[in-house]
Amino acid sequence: MNIVKRIIYNYGIPIIGCLCHNRNRYVNVIYYHDIVDDKGYSFMQTNFELFKKQMEYIASKGYETVRFDDLKTEVDERYDSKRIIIAFDDGWKSNYTRIYELMKSLGLKYNIYLAVKEIGVNPDYLTWDEVRKMHNEGMVGFGAHSYTHPDMSDISKIDLEVEFTKADAIFEEQLGYKPMDFCYPFGTYSEESNEYISSHLSYKRIYTSRMMYSYRQNGKLIFGRNGISNDESFGVFKAKLKGYFNVWRTIIR
Ligand SMILES: [Zn+2]
Protein backbone atom coordinates (compact mmCIF):
# COMPACT_ATOMS: atom_id res chain seq x y z
CA MET A 1 0.00 0.00 0.00
CA ASN A 2 1.54 3.32 -0.97
CA ILE A 3 1.65 6.27 1.39
CA VAL A 4 -1.46 8.01 0.00
CA LYS A 5 -3.56 4.84 0.18
CA ARG A 6 -2.21 4.18 3.65
CA ILE A 7 -3.27 7.62 4.87
CA ILE A 8 -6.73 7.22 3.32
CA TYR A 9 -7.07 3.75 4.87
CA ASN A 10 -5.80 4.66 8.33
CA TYR A 11 -7.43 8.06 8.69
CA GLY A 12 -9.73 8.97 5.75
CA ILE A 13 -12.04 5.97 5.92
CA PRO A 14 -12.37 6.05 9.74
CA ILE A 15 -13.19 9.77 9.69
CA ILE A 16 -15.84 9.42 6.97
CA GLY A 17 -17.14 6.29 8.68
CA CYS A 18 -17.34 8.10 12.01
CA LEU A 19 -19.40 10.89 10.43
CA CYS A 20 -21.73 8.42 8.71
CA HIS A 21 -21.88 5.50 11.13
CA ASN A 22 -25.52 6.17 12.02
CA ARG A 23 -26.26 4.54 8.66
CA ASN A 24 -25.14 1.15 9.93
CA ARG A 25 -28.15 -1.15 9.79
CA TYR A 26 -26.92 -4.55 10.87
CA VAL A 27 -24.89 -5.80 13.80
CA ASN A 28 -21.20 -5.43 13.14
CA VAL A 29 -19.17 -8.57 12.46
CA ILE A 30 -15.41 -8.79 12.85
CA TYR A 31 -13.56 -11.93 11.86
CA TYR A 32 -10.25 -13.73 12.22
CA HIS A 33 -8.73 -17.07 11.19
CA ASP A 34 -5.89 -18.76 13.09
CA ILE A 35 -4.38 -17.36 16.31
CA VAL A 36 -0.63 -18.01 16.55
CA ASP A 37 2.28 -17.44 18.92
CA ASP A 38 4.67 -16.26 16.22
CA LYS A 39 4.38 -12.87 14.61
CA GLY A 40 1.27 -13.49 12.56
CA TYR A 41 0.39 -12.65 9.00
CA SER A 42 -2.31 -10.46 7.46
CA PHE A 43 -5.88 -11.75 7.85
CA MET A 44 -4.86 -15.42 8.06
CA GLN A 45 -2.83 -15.54 11.27
CA THR A 46 -3.15 -13.19 14.20
CA ASN A 47 -0.49 -12.98 16.88
CA PHE A 48 -1.86 -14.10 20.24
CA GLU A 49 -0.61 -11.09 22.23
CA LEU A 50 -2.17 -8.69 19.71
CA PHE A 51 -5.41 -10.68 19.73
CA LYS A 52 -5.46 -10.62 23.53
CA LYS A 53 -5.00 -6.85 23.57
CA GLN A 54 -7.91 -6.46 21.11
CA MET A 55 -10.18 -8.73 23.15
CA GLU A 56 -9.30 -6.96 26.41
CA TYR A 57 -10.19 -3.69 24.69
CA ILE A 58 -13.60 -5.09 23.61
CA ALA A 59 -14.28 -6.36 27.13
CA SER A 60 -13.18 -3.09 28.75
CA LYS A 61 -15.55 -1.08 26.53
CA GLY A 62 -18.55 -3.13 27.65
CA TYR A 63 -19.49 -4.64 24.29
CA GLU A 64 -22.12 -7.35 24.28
CA THR A 65 -20.81 -10.22 22.17
CA VAL A 66 -23.36 -12.53 20.58
CA ARG A 67 -23.40 -16.08 19.26
CA PHE A 68 -25.20 -16.96 16.04
CA ASP A 69 -27.69 -18.78 18.29
CA ASP A 70 -28.57 -15.40 19.87
CA LEU A 71 -29.73 -13.97 16.51
CA LYS A 72 -33.28 -15.22 16.74
CA THR A 73 -35.21 -12.35 15.15
CA GLU A 74 -34.55 -9.50 12.74
CA VAL A 75 -34.40 -7.15 15.74
CA ASP A 76 -31.41 -9.12 17.04
CA GLU A 77 -29.65 -8.54 13.71
CA ARG A 78 -29.93 -4.77 13.90
CA TYR A 79 -26.97 -2.51 14.41
CA ASP A 80 -26.21 -1.56 17.97
CA SER A 81 -23.07 0.40 18.76
CA LYS A 82 -22.43 -1.78 21.80
CA ARG A 83 -23.10 -5.19 20.25
CA ILE A 84 -20.64 -7.14 18.14
CA ILE A 85 -20.22 -10.54 16.50
CA ILE A 86 -16.71 -11.97 16.76
CA ALA A 87 -16.18 -14.74 14.21
CA PHE A 88 -13.46 -17.12 13.03
CA ASP A 89 -13.23 -18.78 9.63
CA ASP A 90 -12.43 -22.47 9.02
CA GLY A 91 -12.25 -24.06 12.51
CA TRP A 92 -8.55 -23.76 13.37
CA LYS A 93 -7.34 -25.72 16.41
CA SER A 94 -6.17 -22.50 18.09
CA ASN A 95 -9.78 -21.29 18.24
CA TYR A 96 -10.09 -23.73 21.13
CA THR A 97 -6.59 -24.44 22.46
CA ARG A 98 -5.26 -20.92 22.41
CA ILE A 99 -8.21 -18.62 23.02
CA TYR A 100 -11.12 -20.46 24.63
CA GLU A 101 -10.02 -19.86 28.23
CA LEU A 102 -9.09 -16.27 27.47
CA MET A 103 -12.49 -15.56 25.94
CA LYS A 104 -14.29 -17.25 28.83
CA SER A 105 -12.31 -15.22 31.36
CA LEU A 106 -13.24 -12.01 29.54
CA GLY A 107 -16.87 -13.10 29.11
CA LEU A 108 -16.69 -12.79 25.33
CA LYS A 109 -18.79 -15.10 23.17
CA TYR A 110 -17.64 -15.92 19.65
CA ASN A 111 -18.48 -17.92 16.54
CA ILE A 112 -16.71 -20.30 14.20
CA TYR A 113 -17.59 -21.29 10.62
CA LEU A 114 -16.53 -24.91 10.10
CA ALA A 115 -14.82 -26.26 6.97
CA VAL A 116 -16.34 -29.66 7.74
CA LYS A 117 -13.93 -31.93 5.85
CA GLU A 118 -11.03 -30.89 8.10
CA ILE A 119 -12.82 -31.11 11.45
CA GLY A 120 -11.73 -34.10 13.52
CA VAL A 121 -9.36 -35.20 10.74
CA ASN A 122 -6.69 -32.55 10.21
CA PRO A 123 -4.64 -31.97 13.40
CA ASP A 124 -4.48 -28.23 12.65
CA TYR A 125 -8.26 -28.07 13.05
CA LEU A 126 -10.75 -28.57 15.88
CA THR A 127 -12.16 -31.95 16.83
CA TRP A 128 -15.91 -32.49 17.10
CA ASP A 129 -15.50 -33.03 20.86
CA GLU A 130 -13.98 -29.55 21.16
CA VAL A 131 -16.73 -28.10 18.98
CA ARG A 132 -19.46 -29.68 21.12
CA LYS A 133 -17.83 -28.63 24.38
CA MET A 134 -17.60 -24.99 23.28
CA HIS A 135 -21.17 -25.01 22.04
CA ASN A 136 -22.62 -26.81 25.06
CA GLU A 137 -20.96 -24.38 27.45
CA GLY A 138 -22.81 -21.57 25.69
CA MET A 139 -19.74 -19.61 24.67
CA VAL A 140 -19.34 -20.38 20.98
CA GLY A 141 -21.79 -20.48 18.07
CA PHE A 142 -21.10 -22.40 14.87
CA GLY A 143 -21.86 -21.86 11.22
CA ALA A 144 -21.32 -23.63 7.91
CA HIS A 145 -18.29 -23.06 5.70
CA SER A 146 -18.80 -25.83 3.07
CA TYR A 147 -17.17 -29.27 2.96
CA THR A 148 -14.00 -28.83 0.85
CA HIS A 149 -13.70 -25.04 1.08
CA PRO A 150 -13.98 -24.22 -2.66
CA ASP A 151 -14.17 -20.80 -4.30
CA MET A 152 -17.91 -20.29 -4.84
CA SER A 153 -17.83 -17.30 -7.14
CA ASP A 154 -18.96 -19.64 -9.95
CA ILE A 155 -21.73 -21.65 -8.31
CA SER A 156 -22.24 -23.77 -11.47
CA LYS A 157 -18.87 -25.43 -10.80
CA ILE A 158 -19.77 -26.39 -7.24
CA ASP A 159 -20.80 -29.91 -6.20
CA LEU A 160 -23.86 -28.74 -4.28
CA GLU A 161 -24.53 -32.17 -2.83
CA VAL A 162 -21.09 -32.30 -1.21
CA GLU A 163 -20.59 -28.67 -0.21
CA PHE A 164 -24.04 -28.09 1.25
CA THR A 165 -26.06 -31.29 1.73
CA LYS A 166 -23.22 -33.49 2.96
CA ALA A 167 -21.48 -30.75 4.97
CA ASP A 168 -24.68 -29.75 6.73
CA ALA A 169 -25.70 -33.36 7.41
CA ILE A 170 -22.37 -33.99 9.19
CA PHE A 171 -22.71 -30.67 11.07
CA GLU A 172 -26.20 -31.60 12.23
CA GLU A 173 -25.22 -35.15 13.17
CA GLN A 174 -22.35 -33.85 15.32
CA LEU A 175 -24.01 -30.79 16.85
CA GLY A 176 -27.69 -31.66 16.82
CA TYR A 177 -28.91 -28.66 14.85
CA LYS A 178 -28.82 -27.33 11.30
CA PRO A 179 -26.46 -24.40 10.66
CA MET A 180 -28.36 -21.15 10.15
CA ASP A 181 -25.26 -19.19 9.21
CA PHE A 182 -23.12 -19.79 6.13
CA CYS A 183 -19.85 -18.12 5.28
CA TYR A 184 -18.33 -18.21 1.78
CA PRO A 185 -14.92 -19.92 1.60
CA PHE A 186 -12.31 -17.26 0.76
CA GLY A 187 -15.15 -14.75 1.11
CA THR A 188 -15.62 -14.95 -2.66
CA TYR A 189 -19.06 -14.95 -4.22
CA SER A 190 -21.10 -13.61 -7.11
CA GLU A 191 -24.64 -12.39 -7.67
CA GLU A 192 -25.45 -15.90 -8.99
CA SER A 193 -24.09 -17.64 -5.90
CA ASN A 194 -26.00 -15.25 -3.62
CA GLU A 195 -29.16 -15.85 -5.60
CA TYR A 196 -28.78 -19.63 -5.48
CA ILE A 197 -27.94 -19.89 -1.80
CA SER A 198 -30.49 -17.35 -0.63
CA SER A 199 -33.33 -18.93 -2.60
CA HIS A 200 -32.55 -22.68 -2.39
CA LEU A 201 -30.87 -23.23 0.96
CA SER A 202 -32.16 -22.80 4.48
CA TYR A 203 -29.45 -20.56 5.94
CA LYS A 204 -30.78 -17.34 7.45
CA ARG A 205 -27.55 -15.41 7.04
CA ILE A 206 -24.92 -15.59 4.30
CA TYR A 207 -21.59 -13.96 5.15
CA THR A 208 -19.19 -12.42 2.65
CA SER A 209 -15.86 -10.71 3.26
CA ARG A 210 -17.07 -7.45 1.85
CA MET A 211 -16.97 -4.84 4.55
CA MET A 212 -20.51 -4.48 5.77
CA TYR A 213 -22.14 -4.42 2.40
CA SER A 214 -25.24 -5.99 3.97
CA TYR A 215 -28.75 -6.30 2.59
CA ARG A 216 -31.68 -8.69 2.40
CA GLN A 217 -32.21 -10.96 -0.57
CA ASN A 218 -35.00 -13.56 -0.78
CA GLY A 219 -35.62 -12.94 2.91
CA LYS A 220 -32.02 -13.84 3.83
CA LEU A 221 -29.39 -11.49 5.13
CA ILE A 222 -26.36 -11.12 2.89
CA PHE A 223 -23.94 -10.07 5.55
CA GLY A 224 -20.73 -8.10 5.06
CA ARG A 225 -17.96 -8.45 7.62
CA ASN A 226 -14.83 -6.64 8.77
CA GLY A 227 -11.67 -8.74 8.53
CA ILE A 228 -9.17 -7.89 11.24
CA SER A 229 -5.61 -7.96 9.93
CA ASN A 230 -2.59 -8.75 12.05
CA ASP A 231 -0.71 -6.03 10.18
CA GLU A 232 -3.04 -3.06 10.75
CA SER A 233 -2.83 -0.41 13.44
CA PHE A 234 -4.83 -0.50 16.65
CA GLY A 235 -6.61 2.62 15.42
CA VAL A 236 -7.87 0.75 12.36
CA PHE A 237 -9.01 -2.12 14.60
CA LYS A 238 -10.99 0.30 16.78
CA ALA A 239 -12.54 1.93 13.71
CA LYS A 240 -13.58 -1.46 12.32
CA LEU A 241 -15.04 -2.40 15.68
CA LYS A 242 -17.19 0.72 15.68
CA GLY A 243 -18.40 0.08 12.14
CA TYR A 244 -16.53 3.07 10.73
CA PHE A 245 -15.19 0.96 7.87
CA ASN A 246 -18.68 0.35 6.57
CA VAL A 247 -18.38 3.42 4.37
CA TRP A 248 -18.95 1.54 1.14
CA ARG A 249 -22.65 1.20 1.85
CA THR A 250 -22.68 4.56 3.57
CA ILE A 251 -21.48 6.32 0.42
CA ILE A 252 -23.55 4.48 -2.17
CA ARG A 253 -26.86 4.36 -0.31
ZN1 LIG B 1 -12.26 -20.22 5.01
Structure description:
There is one protein chain. This protein is an alpha/beta fold and 253 residues long. The chain has a single domain, classed as Alpha-Beta Barrel (TIM Barrel). The protein is 36% helix and 18% strand. It contains 9 helices and 12 strands. Helix 7 links the parallel strand 8 and strand 9. The structure holds zinc ion. The site of zinc ion (ZN) has 6 residues, from strand 5.
Give structural attributes.
binds zinc ion, TIM Barrel, alpha/beta, globular, 18% strand, 9 helices, 253 residues
Number of helices: 9
Estimated share of beta-strand residues: 15-25%
Summing up helix and strand content along with how strands pair, one would put the structural category as alpha/beta
The CATH superfamily is known as Glycoside hydrolase/deacetylase
The level of helicity is 25-40%
Give the mean pLDDT: 93
The gross shape turns out to be globular
CATH architecture: Alpha-Beta Barrel
For the record, the CATH class is: Alpha Beta
- Report how far the terminal alpha carbons are from each other: 27 Å
Q: Domains counted in the coordinates: how many?
A: 1
Query: How many strands appear in the DSSP assignment?
Result: 12
Main pleated-sheet profile: 6 strands, parallel
Question: Compute the gyration radius: what is it?
Answer: 17 Å
Low-confidence stretches: none
Q: What is the fold named in CATH at topology level?
A: TIM Barrel
The topology string of helices and strands comes to HEEEHEEHHEHEHEHEEEEHH
- Which distinct ligands sit in these coordinates? zinc ion
